[in-house]
């Protein structure tokens, strides 16, 4: 019961269909203003934090800990720091965990935007399955993986970027790099235009 109330505040921030027009008219913050927002509030992180029901945002340590993954009942993993030199899907063989790896670099020049929709689809699929729970991670769990979680909340839950940031920051400190923030602002713009059309 306490678990659900923890998320009721966050999910109530998600705009309803009726208030969607109001949300789409909110000004889009500059990257500088977004960075100021990201530096306020919760800054602490665990190896994994549940930022949305069934959706965990974490680091590579938790991703490598099979016992902890089993304790959290993780059914899917989205790795935003996939590398051919570190364990990928084969590491989870026999666990029943479904894996998606993205070879992203935590660099402002890296284009994460082609992965926004495929990642949102993978997260949505994981959470749509009865009892599905997903870990989205990168090396530290604050930039690459956080960017994909924000995109998921914007695409699948019709949140603005600011609403998505506030929702995640209620549970975990995050700081996507400046290039990723620019890409998320572009996503915010395109989603707002689509909703108006």
TrEMBL record:
Residues 1-18 have a biased composition (Low complexity). It catalyses: O-phospho-L-threonyl-[protein] + H2O = L-threonyl-[protein] + phosphate; O-phospho-L-seryl-[protein] + H2O = L-seryl-[protein] + phosphate; O-phospho-L-tyrosyl-[protein] + H2O = L-tyrosyl-[protein] + phosphate. Its EC number is 3.1.3.16, 3.1.3.48. GO terms for biological process: negative regulation of ERK1 and ERK2 cascade; negative regulation of transcription by RNA polymerase II; positive regulation of cell adhesion. Residues 1-24 are annotated as: Disordered. It is found in: Cytoplasm; Golgi apparatus; Nucleus. Keywords: Cytoplasm, Golgi apparatus, Hydrolase, Nucleus, Protein phosphatase. One of its GO terms (cellular component) is nucleoplasm. Gene3D superfamilies: Protein tyrosine phosphatase superfamily. It comes from the Eukaryota. GO terms for molecular function: MAP kinase phosphatase activity; p53 binding; protein serine/threonine phosphatase activity; protein tyrosine phosphatase activity; protein tyrosine/serine/threonine phosphatase activity; RNA polymerase II-specific DNA-binding transcription factor binding. Coiled coil: none annotated. SMART domains: DSPc, PTPc_motif. Belongs to the protein-tyrosine phosphatase family. Non-receptor class dual specificity subfamily. Dual specificity phosphatase able to dephosphorylate phosphotyrosine, phosphoserine and phosphothreonine residues, with a preference for phosphotyrosine as a substrate. Interacts with HSF4. This is Dual specificity protein phosphatase. The gene is DUSP26.
